[in-house]
Each structure stands twice: as C-alpha cells, then as structure tokens.
Amino acid sequence: MKVTEHIEKANGKTLFSFEIIPPKKGKNIKELYDNINPLMEFKPPFIDVTTSREEYVYVNRDGLFDRKITRMRPGTVGICAAIKHKYNVDTVPHVLCGGFSKEETEYLLVDCHYLGIENVMALRGDAMNHQKYFEASEGGHHYACDLVGQINNLNQGKYLHDVVETDDKADFCIGVAGYPEKHIEAPSLNSDLKRLKEKVDAGADYIVTQMFFDNSKYFEFVDEAKKAGINVPIIPGIKPIAIPRHLQLLPHVFKIDIPEPLISEVEKCKNNKEVRQVGIEWCIKQSKELMEGGAPVLHYYSMGKSSNIEQIAKAIF
Ligand SMILES: NC(=O)C1=CN([C@@H]2O[C@H](COP(=O)(O)OP(=O)(O)OC[C@H]3O[C@@H](n4cnc5c(N)ncnc54)[C@H](O)[C@@H]3O)[C@@H](O)[C@H]2O)C=CC1
Ligand SMILES: Nc1nc(=O)c2c([nH]1)NC[C@@H]1CN(c3ccc(C(=O)N[C@@H](CCC(=O)O)C(=O)O)cc3)CN21
User: Fold this and answer.
1) The complex's ipTM?
2) What catalytic activity does the UniProt entry give for this protein (predicted)?
C-alpha cells in the first residue's frame, strides 16, 4: 500500500515509522533483523531503507595504498524485498540522483515494480566524501526534482527513450525531502520552499523532513509550505541524541541547530548512558508535541540501532 494511503486510512491517528541503513557488504543481515524485531510491536506501516552511494576506499597492498571506488552498503532493493516478505510491511527504498545514471535508476524502478514495492523516496543524495559540492553523475540527474519527473513518467508508462509501449503501468507513491531549517545550499528558506513546491508539482506525494530538535521549526515549516501551495503530507523525521559527540556531529553533517536547553542538558551529563537518556527524554517530548500538533507519521532515523527508538516508541505508541 502507498504511504499516502496508510496516512488516509489512519484517519488522523499518528503512525510510527523508521529508517534503516543497509549493512556493510560482507556482513550478515541478521544484525539488521535483530534491530528491527523490537520495533515491530509498534506496527510501522512502512520502513525506509537508505541508499549509500559509491565512495573511495584505500586498500593496503604491501605498504602501498591503492585507491578504489566502490559501494560499501549495496542491497537497498534486496533488503526492501526481504523485509517486506519477512514482516509483511511496506518498504520504501531511497532512490538517489548521485551515483546513478538514469538508465540504472530505471532498472531499479523496474525491479521495485516487479517486487510489489509501491513507494520510493526520491533524493538528490550527498556529495561524495572527497567532494565539497554535489556533482551529478554521468548520465544522472542534477536535482531530486528531475528524478521525481522520471518516476512520474514511469507512472504514466513512459520509459527512457520511448522504447516500449506498456500494458502494466507502475504507480509509485513518491516521497521527497524537506528542510525545516533550509537546505545548506539554498540561498533562503523561501527559495528552498519554491524548490520543494517544484518537486511536489513534478509528482511528489509526500515530504519527509530533515531531522530537527526544535518542534517550532517543523510547525513553522508546515505553515509556510501550506502558504506556498504545498498540500501533501509533511512527515517529521526525528532522531534522538545518543552520544556526547552528536552535539558537534549532527549540526556538521545535517546542517541543523541544537536548542540551548538540550545542549545544557547534555553538557550536565556525567557519562554516555546519561546522554542517551537525555536524548530519549527530549525525543519523547518532541514526539508528544508533534503528535498533538497533528503530525501524520513520526519517522525515526534509527539507522539500525533500535534500543533508544524502542524506549521512545513505548512511551508514545
Ligand atoms: N532520508 C534521506 O536519505 C535524506 C537525505 N537528504 C539529503 O539531503 C540532500 C539534498 O537532497 P534533496 O533534498 O533530495 O535535493 P534537492 O535536489 O531537492 O535539493 C538540493 C539543493 O538544490 C537546490 N535546488 C533544487 N532544484 C534546484 C534548481 N533547479 N536550481 C538550483 N538549485 C536547486 C535546493 O534548494 C537544495 O538546496 C542530499 O544530501 C540528500 O542525501 C535529506 C533528507 C533526507
Ligand atoms: N544530508 C543528509 N544525508 C542523508 O543521507 C540523510 C539526511 N541528510 N537526513 C535524513 C536522513 C537521516 N540519515 C542519517 C544517516 C546516518 C545517520 C548516522 O548514522 N549518524 C551517525 C553519525 C554520522 C556520521 O558519523 O557521519 C550517528 O552516530 O548517529 C543518521 C541519519 C540519512 N539521511
């Protein structure tokens, strides 16, 4: 079922969902299942599986380092199919511009269609780890908006190069990313909202936000998006702080602010366990308020580590 259908069916009740990252290649999938299992009692209607792009790795050959380019966490669509089959839930693979040509994206979407995967999250993706700015891959899209266009074309039976006539159209429900604190490359929140509107006009059915720690940023974003003519569901994406280093790391990686009261709570902690507890309590408070404020779904960036998300979900769902 589509994410938007799950939301409609819930009839105003807030749903629970979460996001996982594929294991490094060579690792057993069991660890992922062990982390998903405790979260299944909260009945997520869908689970997101991220896609990691290629990266440079350095291989030591007798003291000389060889630089190789490889994807360390492949398997997104396979994991989606495995989870869908094992738990009978919908899965949402992330589809990226970066690292994929349009052809490769088309093949991936064809696989999804055969597997009965009805939702995809369309993202531009991050720059490669050695790059300062995002660069489009050869034969790939520059912006998420163009990727949404390709998926929407497929929904209308239009494949690349118009090579086929179809009697079996895909009907993907398309998610895109939104930024309550603006995307780092956008000159202003307002211009970022215009870009978001372009994605919705190109066919996006719902929005998942970047993580935030101050709910007023989400509520203002939802208001501004409505004023800009965006009428699709806006799902808040949230993550509990779990280690002291997150105070520096999360603003650096995700370009977001951490509110002063949360910083001072974390700074008061004597050990990692206390920080984790502060993160859980803050996230419970955020979750309650978001629920009261009418958020359609609470989407947790668990990234495969479930114990804190489990405690939060126990308090909320
Ligand atoms: N769940 C996930 O995996 C999420 C990933 N992200 C990451 O966020 C980053 C951006 O991805 P998206 O939001 O999908 O990218 P996007 O293509 O929608 O936007 C990227 C940037 O380009 C700007 N932009 C868009 N269209 C433009 C145009 N035609 N001309 C000039 N500027 C334009 C936007 O304002 C924004 O600053 C990526 O790094 C992505 O991986 C963000 C949220 C969720
Ligand atoms: N720019 C960007 N890229 C993404 O891939 C991305 C977003 N934003 N925002 C939404 C989700 C959330 N994502 C993630 C990805 C990784 C962690 C993670 O494992 N973080 C580590 C530290 C990060 C690091 O070491 O780079 C952690 O300890 O929580 C969390 C959320 C992926 N998504």
Assistant:
1) 0.92
2) (6S)-5-methyl-5,6,7,8-tetrahydrofolate + NAD(+) = (6R)-5,10-methylene-5,6,7,8-tetrahydrofolate + NADH + H(+)
Q: Is the CB of 124 under 6 A from ligand 1?
A: yes
Ligand 1 centre to CA of 144 (Å) is: 6
Q: What is the secondary structure of the chain as a DSSP string?
A: --HHHHHHHHTTPPEEEEEE-PPPTTS-THHHHHHHGGGGGG--SEEEE-----EEEEEEETTEEEEEEE-SS--HHHHHHHHHHHH--EEEEEEESTT--HHHHHHHHHHHHHHT--EEEEE--PPPTT-SS--PPTT--SSHHHHHHHHHHHHTT--GGG----SS----EEEEEE-TT--TT-SSHHHHHHHHHHHHHTT--EEEEPP-S-HHHHHHHHHHHHHTT--S-EEPEE----STTHHHHHHHHH-----HHHHHHHHH-SSHHHHHHHHHHHHHHHHHHHHHTT-SEEEE--TT--HHHHHHHHHH-
pLDDT in tens, the chain (317 residues): 999 999 999 999 999 999 999 999 999 999 999 999 999 999 999 999 999 999 999 999 899 999 999 999 999 999 999 999 999 999 999 999 999 999 999 999 999 999 999 999 999 999 998 899 999 999 999 999 999 999 999 999 999 998 888 888 999 999 999 999 999 999 999 999 999 999 999 999 999 999 999 999 999 999 999 999 999 999 999 999 999 999 999 999 999 999 999 999 999 999 999 999 999 999 999 999 999 999 999 999 998 788 999 999 999 99
Provide the domain limits for residue 190. 3-240+298-316
Distance 185 CA to ligand 1 centre (A): 8
CATH code for the domain in which residue 71 is found: 3.20.20.220
Give the residues surrounding ligand 2 with Cβ less than 6 Å away.
Answer: 50, 126, 210, 237, 249, 253-254, 301, 303
Is residue 151 one of the residues assigned to a domain?
yes
In a domain, 261, yes or no: no
Specify if 309 maps to a domain.
yes
Asked, for residue 312, whether it belongs to a domain, the answer is yes
Number of structural domains, the chain?
1
